[in-house]
Amino acid sequence: MKRIYKSPKEPELLCKYRNLYPDETWEHFRRHWRKGYRQVKEATIMDQQGLCAYCEVSIKLAEEESEVDDFRIEHFFPKSVVNKGAHNYHLDWWNLLGVCHGGSQPCVPDAQWRFSTKKRDRSCDVPKGSKEITGRILNPLKIPASIRLFRYAEHTGKIIIDETVCPLGLQKKARTTIKELNLNAPRLMRMRKVVIEWLNEEITAVMQTGTTLEEGLSLLAESFLLPDDDGRYVPFFTMIRWYLGAAAEQLLAEHNYNI
């Protein structure tokens, strides 16, 4: 999970809809204001720079008629606990996150990697559901960017709290986040392990050119930790940041990532 900076200017059509129908539901907005939903979707993907807010897989949009987007809007504060007359979290721009389907949708692109028939393989908002656990898990909009909270097991792809850098006050929430969002689903661990193996191959190839390890890590940081021309990050940004260590932190600081 990485820090997300939402645009302070919410999508115009969402704002307009909320002013007209302040007590309406998200489902009504999505079904009846399709242009507004598309606007929210595009803005969310742009703000998150192409990554799922929770597990950091890439958001993949459907390219074939038989496919569906591996994307949906998640309400961090669950819609189901909103009482009539209270704050309407359904239409609150700051409550909307873009997430993948968490392994639950068989018709997404790259379904052989992204879909699983097993319940224990579901992640992100799927196990979270409508549980009111927002006070016990990390909010991607509020975690620090300057501090990496997690480390990873290189041979398994498992995500773990990095107690050497994660602030003590966030460690309990971080552990609960991993558990409640099932961020160590076998499907995610498998994907992370492939990325780690790929990084190992990349650093080996770079060093075979006579480059030092330190120089090689810096080169990889420049290649993989900066957004592409479309403003998107590579999947599993935080894991790559961990793998590249000091070279990653130096590069991100130079590019004001920590602000």
Shape verdict: globular
Q: Roughly what is the average pLDDT, rounded to an integer? A: 94
In this structure, how is the largest beta sheet organized? 2 strands, antiparallel
Poorly predicted parts: none
Structural class: mainly alpha
Structure write-up:
It is a single chain. This protein is mostly helical. It contains nine helices and four strands. The strands form two sheets. A two-stranded antiparallel ribbon has the order 1-2. It has a two-stranded antiparallel ribbon with strand order 3-4.
Task: Write a compact overview of the structure shown.
The chain is mostly helical and 259 residues long. It contains nine helices and four strands; from the N terminus they run αααββααββαααα.
Task: Give the topology.
Blueprint: H1 12-20, H2 26-32, H3 34-47, E1 72-75, E2 96-99, H4 111-114, H5 125-128, E3 150-152, E4 159-161, H6 168-180, H7 186-207, H8 213-224, H9 237-254
Antiparallel strand pairs: 1-2, 3-4
Keywords:
globular; 259 residues; mainly alpha; single chain
